[in-house]
Design a protein that fits this description.
Layout: H1 21-43, H2 53-61, H3 68-85, H4 97-107, H5 110-123, E1 128-135, E2 138-145, E3 156-162, H6 169-172, H7 176-187, H8 190-195
Antiparallel strand pairs: 1-2, 1-3
Helix pairs in contact: 1-3, 2-3, 5-7
This protein binds manganese (III) ion (MN3).
Length: about 200
């Protein structure tokens, strides 16, 4: 069975003015779709075609650089689907009590979390992602380059923001810090993040 492009979990204009329908038209309709098409082309007629996306990512990550193209496209399919689920209309604000207590314990409080997460997103040089992850039972903020993702490092992803220029350039141009601030203040789907704690 081929890998598929999942629909956005909200209307394309639902997150305006922070992320426009025009951005989703390209980011989901072109970029995410292209990763799915590329992954299907790279895995068809191979034993990877029948495996789950997570299995393909792990197998490719263990066989770099031979499987770099498969890793890049599989990881980007996963990353984007995960990112859409991290967003919601009227999001932002604070997480629920359970996650907030973990953030207080592991990351020095919610204000410190916001500052450090934003800093990770802003200082990722070039294309990549900033993440809140669970690593060895503790919350951590990490950043990854290009398609790289926590799954390839034994970590569990809880939250991400895409800081490739295609994620924000139509709406924010070069103002990545403002995009990340809007993400934290207005878009984070904390229910999804907390559900990822397991
Ligand atoms: Mn992207």
């Amino acid at each position: 069975m081929a890998f598929e492009l999942p629909p956005l979990p909200f209307a394309a204009d639902a997150l305006e003015p922070h992320i426009s329908a025009r951005t989703f038209e390209f980011h989901h309709g072109k970029h995410h779709a292209a990763y799915v098409t590329n992954l299907n082309n790279l895995t068809k007629d191979s034993d990877l075609a029948g495996k789950s996306l997570e299995e393909v990512i792990k197998i490719a990550a263990a066989d770099l650089p031979a499987k770099q193209g498969i890793f890049n496209n599989a990881a980007q399919v996963w990353n984007h689907t995960f990112f859409w689920n991290c967003l919601k209309k009227g999001g932002g604000g604070k997480p629920g009590a359970k996650l907030l207590a973990r953030i207080d314990a592991d990351l020095g409080g919610f204000d410190k979390f916001k500052e450090d997460f934003k800093n990770a997103a802003v200082t990722q040089f070039g294309s990549g992602w900033a993440w809140l992850v669970l690593d060895g039972g503790k919350l951590k903020i990490v950043k990854t380059a290009n398609a790289d993702l926590p799954l390839a490092h034994g970590q569990t992803a809880l939250l991400t923001v895409d800081v490739w220029e295609h994620a924000y350039y139509l709406d924010w141009q070069n103002r990545r810090p403002d995009f990340v601030q809007a993400f934290l203040d207005h878009l984070v789907n904390w229910d999804f993040v907390e559900a990822n704690l397991g």
